[in-house]
User: Which sequence fits this backbone?
């Protein structure tokens, strides 16, 4: 049985600058929650990612890591 792919966080979108700190993923800052949602939606559409709401003004975008195919 093949291992399932691991989700990888690749971006953060937030309307609250004090809710996140520098990290390994790029951070996109929005003026308000409506702009935050719009930015996340477009990034997800472009990259085929998943968005997760942390319910603190922060959205994280994840994608599944490409695993090695087993034969």
Assistant:
């Amino acid at each position: 049985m093949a291992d399932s792919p691991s989700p990888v966080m690749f971006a953060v979108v937030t309307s609250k600058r004090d809710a996140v700190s520098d990290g390994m993923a790029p951070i996109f800052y929005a003026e308000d929650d409506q702009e935050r949602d719009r930015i996340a939606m477009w990034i997800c559409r472009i990259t085929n990612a998943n968005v997760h709401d942390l319910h603190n003004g922060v959205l994280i975008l994840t994608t599944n890591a490409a695993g090695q195919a087993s034969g």
Strands lie at 7-14, 27-29, 50-53, 58-64.
